[in-house]
Amino acid sequence: MSRTLGVVGTLVWDTIHRRGKRELPVEEWGGIGYTLESLAASLPAGWRIRPVLKVGRDLSEAAYRYLREIPGVDVDPGVMVVPEPNNRVELTYLDDDGPGGDRRTERLSGGVPPWNWAELAPRVQGCDALYVNFISGFEMGLDTARALRSGFPGPTWADLHSLFLGISRAGDRMPRPLPDWAEWLASFDAVQMNDDEFTLLGRLHGDPWELAASAVGRDLRLVAVTLGGDGAGYVAAPGFEPDPFRWPAHRGRMSTPGASSSGRVPLEGRPELGGDPIGCGDVWGSTVFARLLAGDDIDDAMREGNRMAARNVTHHGARGLHHHLAGRVAPGPEGARA
User: Is 0.70 surpassed by the pTM of this model?
Assistant: First the structure.
């Protein structure tokens, strides 16, 4: 029986500058491309991928070409072309070693508007599960997330990443605490964030692990946190079951008695140094959700997420990443192009 995983996010054209380097900037697809490529390598047999994206008319033809390169992707049901310019991100690494360094600036441009529920509902209809990745932070507002919560019957996983980023008038992204954090967390069955975002979440509320333990329950079943070279951790609701298709049954019900559970899954082996960390969180989360859908328990799924995210470090850009993650040799390079 064929099943469909809907993927909500933003396809971004990246321009990457490396300070102190004389070569031209690297231009390539990024954003939700990392998630789609990762799912092509990690979803179990019988699953199809439906990108639910708005793309700007200026890059729409190139976007369709790229999406159709990824195995298992059904492009037409979920993609909407809008007149606004497509989202673009300009990344400038401030460390001399380029993407392997920790410091960078990020500038967002483009005007792809968020989904409202009237637009989103018919595009997720027929999906069995939904992966939401806040690449721009403007994929949907809180009202639409609440409507998705009540209107979509399948399990949902959300990477909250760019909800933790504000934006200046010049388009520069900067970390910020998450407004309406409790409502956002309650809008999905499972949420993901990195350790910096997790720290921001707990800044005004004490210890973030204690906050996560108080947040999981009848609506939110799982909080997953990526910890860089230390692997990943999680906090799960009382009575947590790793099968995502059991999660929706808890919505709106009384919480299961008992305490939340937590765990950490360390990275096996030494982290790659000097590689490209862009997209590692996207690869990690999509791999973990894919493995849970395949029937893995939470620790095994996160172990595989760690492995695939570490493998992503040794690949540049989203294009062709599914070959790399699956250990295959990609076709001859055609060069980055829009």
Answer: yes
